[in-house]
Design brief:
Strand order of the largest sheet: 3-2-4
Mean pLDDT: 85
Strand content: 5-15%
Shape: globular
Helix content: 55-70%
Number of helices: 5
Radius of gyration: 22 Å
Largest sheet: 3 strands, antiparallel
Structural class: mainly alpha
Number of strands: 5
Order of helices and strands: HHHHHEEEEE
Low-confidence stretches: 116-126
C-alpha cells in the first residue's frame, strides 16, 4: 500500500489506536464479567479482544512493512538484527514521547482543569465537586508517577538496542543510602523515590522505603509493599 498520502497514514494510525484500545477495553470487560461469574460473557469479550488484536496487527503491518516477515529462515543474522533494532527504535520513540511529553502534559492539564473551569462546576454541585476533584487529583498523581516508569522502559529498550550492536550494558546497583534509595514495583515498574515520597497515600517526602507502613500499596497497580525490590541504577564510573 502506498502511504505517501498523509491522510491514509493518519487513518491507519488512528485505526491501529482504535483497535488497540478496543483490545484492552474488552480484556478489562472480560475480567470484570469473570469476577461477576458470567463465564460465557467473559469468554465472548476475550475472544473479541483477540480479534481486535488481529485487526490492529493488520494495520500495523501496513504502517511498518519493514517489520513484516514472510520467512524468517531466509533472513541473515544481520537482517534479523536490523528488524529487531527497528522494533526497539519504535519502542524507544514511544516510551520517550510518553515520559517527556505525554504524561507531563497530562499532569499539567489535570492540575489546570482542577483549578479553572472545573472549579466553577464544582462550586455549584458540591458532591460532584468532591468526586471530580478526587478523580483529577488521582489522574495528576498517576500521570506524574508514570513519567519515570516510561523513562525506565525507554532506558531498557535503549540498552537492548545497544546490546544488539555488541555494547555491554552499564554496571548497575541499588542505592546504598536509605534516604535516597529507590524501589521498583515488579508488577508495573512504578518507582518509589523516598525524596518525593507518596503524599497522596500519606507517605511524606523524605520517607525511606523501610519506614513505609506494611499496609501501603502501589498507587499504580495496587500491589503490596512486598512486591517492590531495590531499583538498580547505573553506577558512576
Amino acid at each position: 500500500m502506498d502511504l505517501s498520502n498523509s491522510n491514509t497514514a493518519k487513518n491507519l494510525e488512528a485505526a491501529f489506536g482504535g483497535e488497540s484500545m478496543a483490545n484492552r477495553k474488552y480484556l478489562f470487560f472480560a475480567e470484570v464479567t469473570r469476577q461477576l461469574g458470567m463465564t460465557e460473557l467473559s469468554k465472548l469479550f476475550r475472544e473479541t479482544a483477540n480479534q481486535e488484536t488481529e485487526h490492529a496487527f493488520a494495520h500495523f503491518r501496513l504502517m511498518h512493512p519493514e517489520l513484516v516477515i514472510a520467512d524468517s529462515s531466509k533472513l541473515t543474522e544481520e537482517e534479523k538484527k536490523a528488524i529487531a533494532a527497528r522494533c526497539l527504535e519504535l519502542a524507544i520513540e514511544g516510551e520517550t514521547y510518553e515520559y517527556t511529553t505525554m504524561y507531563p502534559d497530562f499532569t499539567e492539564q489535570a492540575r489546570s482543569d482542577r483549578d479553572s473551569k472545573a472549579v466553577a462546576e464544582f462550586e455549584s454541585q458540591e458532591a460532584e465537586s468532591r468526586e471530580h476533584a478526587q478523580i483529577f487529583r488521582k489522574a495528576a498523581h498517576n500521570f506524574g508517577l508514570l513519567t519515570p516508569i516510561e523513562h525506565h522502559h525507554a532506558n531498557q529498550y535503549t540498552e537492548a538496542l545497544q546490546a544488539l550492536g555488541g555494547v555491554a550494558p552499564a554496571t548497575k546497583a541499588p542505592g546504598s543510602e536509605p534516604a535516597t534509595q529507590k524501589w521498583i514495583c515488579r508488577q508495573c515498574s512504578m518507582i518509589y523515590d523516598p525524596v518525593t515520597g507518596d503524599p497522596d497515600s500519606g507517605i511524606a517526602p523524605g520517607t525511606p522505603f523501610a519506614e513505609i507502613p506494611e499496609d501501603w500499596y502501589c498507587p499504580i497497580c495496587g500491589a503490596t509493599k512486598k512486591t517492590f525490590i531495590p531499583y538498580q541504577e547505573p553506577v558512576a564510573a
